[in-house]
Amino acid sequence: MGTAGSVEVVNPDALLGRASSIARTIADKELEAARYTKRCMRAIEGLGQLHGYAHEHRLSEELRATGVTDRLVSGFLNR
Length: 79
Hints:
By secondary structure, the chain is mainly α. The protein has one domain (about 1-75). Helices cover about 70% and strands about 10% of the residues. A two-stranded antiparallel ribbon has the order 1-2. It is flat, with a radius of gyration of 16 Å.
């Protein structure tokens, strides 16, 4: 297995196992944060840089209000 830039090259025999591993990694993440990330990525597609940043900032503030951001930052700092 090797990597080329941000693309991972996997032997075809190992593909299903690697895909399952990536899926588990995603599933282990904070669900609310994943939802906001997905919502943000969909919302900013096609927007200019300034408008995209402004929209991302609004969604980040919404996420912060849920308490998820503080919990994740705290967990990161305490590990």
